[in-house]
Amino acid sequence: MDSVYPVHLSQPIRRQVAISYLKHEFRKLFPSVPENCWPKIDKDITAWPCSPELVYPRDFWNGFHGVSMGFKLKIGLLSYLTAENISWHKKSFPVAHLCFGVDLHQTKLVAPGKLPAVQVIKFYQDPKNKKAREKQLRLTLKKTKNSIPRDQHPIIVVQKKESRKTIYSVYDGNRRLIKAILENKTKINIFLGTFNQGCAPSNYWIPTTLLMENLSFARRAHQRGDQKTFNQYINILKDITRHSPSGRYELKERAIVGPDAFQKEVLQSLGF
Q1: In this structure, is residue 55 part of a structural domain?
Q2: One domain for residues 48 and 107
Q3: String of DSSP letters for 169-197
Q4: What is the pLDDT of residues 139-161, one digit of tens each?
Q5: Which residue from 34, 90, 120, 230 lies 20 to 30 Å from 113 (Cα-Cα)?
Q6: For 7, which DSSP code?
Q7: How far is residue 168's CA from residue 156's CA, in Å, rounded to a whole number?
């Protein structure tokens, strides 16, 4: 079914990033699974894009969204990973060039906010902060001491412009980044997303569930004769899918259930 979707959604590197992320997260979500079972689980996850049980790319990217947003609230990760105007590469990258994407306890000791890694490095390399570094390293290592090894997975980074400056913001892997800093490592493996056009994601995957949930609220408004609210939801759907051909396809072919008067009015209102 993937022939009806934009080609870039099936690029191997995008699948590689997503699969690596899922393998990493599942190790956290299933801590009681024995280590010797993970090669088989990893093999199954790697095969999901070709699974006869899934419609690719729909079910794959919807599933990725379910884990990344549903469990961890990784807002924006799906749109960056599936945007046509963002290219992805795997590489070894200087730790000092990265920027934390969240506040961590270990970075709050330095200063509040999403700090550049170089600022955190300077703090923990200062001889007067040696004990603080040793303490935070112990606490960081303790978090994964009895869990399945997972730090071999690359972290996920997006190159962005903020206040006219280029930053490399970590979207997943902030704990792995602080660990690298506390262990005095100079490089870390990353998946890097860079814009090849514009500065905002375009033509990215819209979760089918997001479309269906908005339509469910629109249906309720339609049923009670609330045309104003119905129109507001239609405008939201127009805006959500404005930069996503695959989103418009999903909206028309999958999200709108019918046929009935509601489906007909939605299709007419959307201009389909």
Answers
A1: yes
A2: no
A3: EEEE-HHHHHHHHHTT-SEEEEEEEEESS
A4: 999 988 888 999 999 999 999 98
A5: 90
A6: G
A7: 10
Boundary (domain end) residue, out of 30, 63, 86: 86
**In a shared domain, residues 154 and 185:** yes
Instruction: Specify which residues 160 forms β-bridges with.
Output: 167
User: Looking at the structure, do residues 97 and 154 belong to the same domain, yes or no?
Assistant: yes
If asked whether residues 28 and 100 sit together in one domain, one would say no
Q: What would the two tokens of residue 6 be?
A: 């934009």
104, 208, 235 from 218: Cα distances, Å: 39, 15, 11
Q: How many domains does the chain have?
A: 3
Calpha distance 272→261 (Å, rounded) = 15
Under DSSP, the state recorded for 3 is G
Q: How far is CA 260 from the centre of its chain?
A: 36
User: Do the bridges between strand 165-172 and strand 155-162 make them parallel or antiparallel, or are there none, so unpaired?
Assistant: antiparallel
Using CA atoms, how far residue 265 sits from 234, 239, 255, in Å, is: 10, 18, 14
What pTM was estimated for this model as a whole? 0.93
Work out the pLDDT band at 2, boundaries 50, 70, 90. Answer: low
- 226 vs 164, more confident: 226
pLDDT higher than threshold 90 for residue 126: yes
Q: Are 176 and 151 in contact (CB under 8 A)?
A: yes
